[in-house]
Amino acid sequence: MSKLLFTAAGLALTAGMASADYTLTILHTNDIHSRVESINRFDSTCNADGEAEGKCFGGMARIKTAVDAKRSELAGSNYVVLDAGDPFQGSLFYTTYKGAAEAEFMEAIGYDVMAVGNHEFDDGPEGLEAFVDTVSFPVISGNLDLTSEPALNGKVSNHVVLNVGGQKIGIISALAVDTVETSSPGENVVFQDEIESLKADVAALEAEGVNKIIALNHVGLAKDLEIAAAVPGIDVVVGGHSHTLLSNTSDRAAGAYPTMVGAVPVVQAYAYSKYLGELTVTFDDAGNVTSAMGEPILLDASVTPDAAMAARIAEMGAPIEEMKQRVVAETAEAVEGAREFCRTGECAMGNLVADAMLDRVKDQGISIAIQNGGGLRASIDAGEVTMGEVLTVLPFQNTLSTFYVSGQTVIDALENGVSQVEEVKGRFPQVAGLKFTWDASVAAGEGRIQEVMVMEGGEFVAIDPAKTYGLVSNNYVRGGGDGYKMFRDADNAYDYGPDLADVTAEYLAKVGPYTPYTDGRIAQK
After folding, report:
1. In 390-463, at which residue ranges do the beta strands (DSSP E only) sit?
2. pLDDT surpassing 90 at residue 4
3. What kind and span of H or E run contains 171?
4. DSSP assignment of 38-58, as one string?
5. What is the mean pLDDT of the chain?
C-alpha cells in the first residue's frame, strides 16, 4: 500500500535539505465494538431524543466527520489513520450484519491500517476473512501463524510499510495470546509470544531500512507498556484491548497521553467510538523520537455526524429498529455495568444478570450462577428499558448452560475468575446463589479465594469441596472461555438454553420496575 502526501512545497523543502526533523500525526481509534450508531453516556446506543438534546457521543458518522476535518487541517502534512482492533461485536449492527457494516464504514472513513483484535474471531476465522476481503486497507497481526488456516493464510500480514511524505513508516502488530480463551480463533490459528514476535518484525523492517516503527497492538495497556520497554526499535505504541482512556484533561483518565516509556510514547483512546486519538510525533533524521504530544478528541455533540454516512446507517438500521425500540421493562435507577466495576468486583449489572440466570433454572436443581464480567458490555440508564439496550449489554448471543461440578471445581473456577483482576480481565465472576471473599495480596492461583458460602435452605453455609452442585452460566464460560477450562468436563451439561439477553429481559419484566443493587456477595480483603 502506498500513501503519498507530497505537495510541491514539501518536495522543494525536502530537496533543499540534507537532513531535517520529520513530523507525523497519528489519528487512531480502538475497540469501536460495533458502535456504528452514536452512544449515550453509558456507552450503549443513543436514541433520537438523546441526539436532539445533544447528549450523544461517537458513532461511525462522527468518526468520519472528525477524520475528514483533520485531513483538511493536516493537508500538506504527514498523517496516518490507524485502528488498534475490535471493531467487531457489541451492537445489533454486528449481530445482524456480522462485520459487513463495520467494513463498509471503516472503508468510507479511510483507515490506513487496522490491527486484528480478539473479537474479530468471534465468528471464527471465516468472519475475519469476510472483513479482510471487503476492505482495501491492510489488516495486520504479527504474532499469528496462519499457515494452517486456509481462511486467513496470506490475507493477514505481519506488518506493513507506508510511504508518508517520502518516509517509510513501518506498522507492526501483536494480538493478545489469550484470544484462544476470549474468542474463537479455532485450532489452526497459532499464537506466538507478543514480544518475541514484535522483535522479529522490527528486525525485518530495519533490514529494509525502515527506522520509524509504530506498534499497533491489541494487547492492553499493561502489555503495551511492557512491550515499549522490551522491544528496541519500536518508536510509538498505539494500543487497544483494555479500553483505556489516556488523557491530559479528563478526570477519568488512567494516565497521561502519551504515557512515556523512556523515549517511547504509548497511547490508547478509550473505546466505543467516543474518542479520536491524535498524537503528533517528531523524529530526528536517525528515526529517533524527539517529541510526542497530543490528546484524544472527544466526539461529543459538537461534532456533527457526516450526513451521507448517517443516512446509510439509518438505512441499515431500519430492519432492526422495531426490535431495538421495543420496551421490555423499567428500571428505577441506572444499572451500572461499566467494565472497570464488573471486572474487578461486585457490580449491579452482574447481580442482575446472575440473578436472572439463576431465577430461570432454580426449579431444575440449580443453585449457583456464574457470569463472566467480560460478557457485560454496557450499563442501562434509568426508566424504560428497550430490547436494544439489553442486547447492547449482552450482545454475544450466549445461551444459558446448566451443568454439575464439585464444590472444589466451583472454588477453582472462582480462583480463575479473580486471577487477572489487576489487568481488568473479563473472567471476573459475577455470581448468584453464593458469596465469596478474595484477597488480592495473594499471588494469582495461590489461594486468593479465602471463603465461599453457598445458599442452602434459606441461609448461607460453607461450600463442601466434595459435594456436587448444580450451576448455570453461559455457553461461552461452560465451554472453557475466559480460562474456565474446569467446566469443560462438567456432568450433565446442557449448553442450548435460551439466549441470555432474552432471559435478562424477561426477568426485568417479571420483577420490574427493577431497582439495581449490590449486597456484598463479593468481598475483598
Report:
1. 400-406, 429-432, 434-438, 449-456, 459-462
2. no
3. strand 167-172
4. -B-TTSSBP-HHHHHTT--B-
5. 93
